[in-house]
From TrEMBL, chain A:
InterPro entries: PhaG_MnhG_YufB. Keywords: Membrane, Transmembrane, Transmembrane helix. This is Cation:proton antiporter. The chain crosses the membrane at residues 6-27, 39-60, 72-94. One of its GO terms (molecular function) is sodium:proton antiporter activity. Pfam families: PhaG_MnhG_YufB. Signal peptide: none annotated.
Automatic annotation (TrEMBL), chain B:
This is Cation:proton antiporter. The keyword Transmembrane helix applies. GO terms for cellular component: plasma membrane. The chain crosses the membrane at residues 7-23, 35-52, 64-83.
Length: 125, 168
């Protein structure tokens, strides 16, 4: 077994473990916002591990270097788009009025929105 | 923020598209390179207006060097973030202390703000909820400091020293 195969297998295993943790986090966490934390982070790193791991594994397994650049491009696109979709989802959840967990300590966003609403009202008068 | 000339923006778009093409085909066969060059010239002509504002200035060696140095730093922060999440998920008491905090940034450029928001989302215990001009609203899984200054110091500053140079 060559070094590339060992590194590739390790990366795929590493990614799969984080996939499991990510789905476990969806069950364990109390509200949408905390679930989004675990789902986004672990799923992104898990995907990176699995995708790049497959590219490295292919070097020794099918004797081809052509897989690695493609997997790197896929990984970079995933890395750039995943946090944006998480941001859009969490913002939409907040805008549609889903409450924070009852033991959350602070909500600065609500304060800022209220301040802006007040300023708008004063501007109209 | 001034825009670069049309030619410089067009050339930058073509270069980026051509590099992506070379990665996707992963071959240096002259025929494939020719078709790739023609296609990137066409697609670049159609899309350069929305793609970039600075043009070739993005390829300044100092900025490219900082961007490359940023990659291992960012991946290390991401691995730490995931170990942190794993600890919180697996710990029987579920040690979370969430809240939405406000942080300020010194970045001026829209692209820099996007990169900072993405970095915040993928690093320990934070996720960007909204951006209004230079203020970030961040959902923090373990709030240690509620004030604006404290949150900025803990969340945005570690990345700003790189992003400030990459996106001036």
């Amino acid at each position: 077994m060559s070094a590339a195969a060992i590194i590739g297998e390790f990366l795929v295993l590493f990614g799969a473990i984080f996939y499991v943790l990510s789905s476990l986090g969806l069950i364990r966490m109390p509200d949408v916002y905390n679930r989004m934390q675990t789902a986004t982070k672990s799923a992104t790193l898990g995907s990176l591990g699995v995708i790049v791991g497959v590219g490295i594994w292919a070097i020794s397994n099918v004797n081809s270097y052509a897989w690695l650049p493609k997997t790197i491009v896929i990984a970079v696109f995933l890395l750039l788009t995943n946090p944006i979709s998480a941001h859009a989802l969490i913002r939409a959840a907040y805008k549609s009025g889903i409450p924070l967990w009852e033991r959350s300590v602070v909500d600065k966003y609500k304060e800022a929105l209220e301040r802006e609403g007040k300023e708008m009202k004063e501007g109209e008068q | 923020m001034g825009e670069a000339s049309k030619i410089s923006r067009y050339l930058y778009t073509v270069i980026v598209l051509f590099i992506i093409w070379m990665f996707l085909t992963s071959s240096l066969d002259p025929q494939e390179l020719e078709i790739g060059l023609i296609l990137s010239l066409i697609v670049g002509a159609l899309t350069y207006e929305v793609f970039t504002e600075k043009g070739l200035a993005n390829l300044h060696p100092k900025r490219v060097a900082y961007a490359i140095a940023y990659i291992p730093y960012f991946i290390w922060a991401m691995i730490m973030a995931n170990l942190d999440v794993a600890y919180r998920v697996l710990h029987p008491k579920r040690p979370i202390n969430p809240g939405i905090v406000e942080a300020k940034t010194v970045l001026k450029n829209d692209l820099g703000k996007l990169a900072l928001a993405n970095s915040i989302t993928l690093t320990p215990g934070t996720i960007t909820l909204d951006v209004k001009e230079d203020r970030y609203f961040i959902h923090w899984i373990d709030v240690t400091d509620e004030s604006v200054e404290g949150a900025s110091k803990a969340i945005t500053e570690p990345f700003e020293k790189f992003l400030k140079v990459i996106f001036p």
